[in-house]
Amino acid sequence: MPLRDVLLGLTVVAIWALNIIVIKVGVAEIPPLLLMTLRFILVAALLVPFYPVHRHQLPFLALLSVTFGTLHFALLFIGLSQAEAGTGALLVQMGTPFATLLAVIFLKERLGPKRLAGLLLSFAGVVVLAGGPTLPTALPLALLLLSALGWAISQLLIKQGPNLPPMALAGWVALFAVPQVALGSLLFERGQVEAIVNAGWAGWGAVLYTAVMSSIAAYGLWYGLLRRHPVNRVVPLTLLVPVAAVFLGALLLDDTLGIHKLSGGGLVVAGIALIILRFGPRRTSP
């Protein structure tokens, strides 16, 4: 991979790692479901007019908005409002083991000893993280793991669904998710008007960053890399996201770096590495 593309990949990693920090800061000013609603409105407004889809694709996008928009993103925002940023970033990475399990169960994919070891390491890491002091109650643990499950379900749906441009997918999922998360905010949150009126640079910056930088700019760069290079050379870069988020949380938010987070996080990242990395001799061209 050329140096330019390596630097682009690292830029995406930095954007996504910082996104976890930005969300954590944003939900301190704007309730998480309201913040999610504002983010989806902005994403939809920026993308839907430029990426039309066929009418027969709308039911698939509506279904994906439930699993990806509401189950994954909304629960991620709520979970991060109650857990440290680095811990949240590590737990959300469990989407990869969950997706592997779902593929084995529903798509009859072969598991194999390496991927099985990766699953065991990942879940062992969650157990270690759950025993640490960075999760004050079981609720954020459950919310973040459900968010990871929502991501995993969404990946299987995308794999089996119609072939759509990534930006069209992001825009229309956001559009369909707006009423879902807005209703959730109306039912479960209070003081929305006051939060919008009183929000400062942190709250509105979080809306702008999560919509424009994380959802549009980063994914645009990422899919460009996937078009130019083999998947197994690009995807391993995602292993750096939780690592960077842990250290950014410690640096910018004074998150703890205790033994539970470091050892549990190491197990999670090592397990995911076993699942997504391919080992063995490289084939040479004749």
Commentary on this structure:
The protein has 286 residues and is mainly α. Helix content is 77%, strand content 0%. It is built from 13 helices and no strands. It is globular, with a radius of gyration of 19 Å.
Indicate the radius of gyration in whole angstroms: 19 Å
Q: What is the total domain count?
A: 1
Which quaternary structure do these chains form?
single chain
Beta-strand percent range: under 5%
- N- to C-terminal separation? 21 Å
Shape descriptor reads: globular
**Residue windows where pLDDT falls under 50 for at least 5 positions:** 282-286
Helical fraction equals over 70%
In DSSP terms, counting alpha (H) and pi (I) runs of 4 or more, how many helices? 13
Task: Give the topology, please.
Layout: H1 3-26, H2 32-47, H3 58-80, H4 85-92, H5 95-106, H6 112-130, H7 138-160, H8 166-188, H9 192-198, H10 201-228, H11 231-234, H12 240-253, H13 259-276
